[in-house]
Amino acid sequence: MSAQPYSGGGAIWRELKKAPPSAKFGLAVICSYVFVALFAPVLTPYGESEIVGSAFEPWGEEYTFGTDSLGRDMLTRLLFGARNTVGIAFVTTCLAFLIGGVCGILAAAMSGWVDQILSRIIDILMAIPALIFALLLLTIFGTTISALIIVIAVLDSTRVFRIARAVSLNVVVLDFVEAARLRGENIGWITIREVLPNIMPPLVAEFGLRFCFVFLTIASLSFLGLGIQPPTADWGSMVRDNAALITYGDLTPLLPAGAIALLTVGVNFVVDWFLHKTSGLRDE
Fold it and tell me: Which residues contact 2 (CB under 8 A, 6 or more apart)?
């Protein structure tokens, strides 16, 4: 019994060692961002909204990446931005998968009028451009963090519903599911014990891709002024607040933009590797 966990850990470590350089790079990026997000208050020299100098101080020993338009330390804001932007995007993606995944699996498992009603609702929601719809809803319900999470999660759950329903439809027609129905198992048991384990690889891969889209959506909304509100540090609003420096040859606005791009690339590298591993294709 005691050797079981060690064997599993060893297998995971062997798979990581065989991973391509792109996947290792992506994992390193993700781990770095998680570390920064968790320990941002320890790593930062100042408070998240603390004004420490004059506006637009240049890069130097005192302020590594200078200061923003209000005199707040850019390095501090960048590190806290990892906690806020990435953390909110992760919670939003989890909620989107909870809503869309449950509805998609139930639609496939129950079929009939349940599938038809849920599918038509999703079709209506997907007919409206997501960013425009999000802007409209946030204008109505306000720009609090809770409203931001709920609005984006509900809109993004439509995409999760489509893929969860599609992969579930391929499973619910198999013999072992029919055997479970004939045994008299209820729909909850069938979805949890029979359907869900067989659709996890595509859902996990979709989670990584969906996280990137949610992450970029939150950054876009913040850039437009309807996302994470000041004084909370957020990479999207940091790009907007410091965009004027580009005209003077200052690269400061590119720092939060680069942080967004780097995490997106890192997650996609890991998702590509995971899809390759779960597809059954052999490494050449």
Answer: none
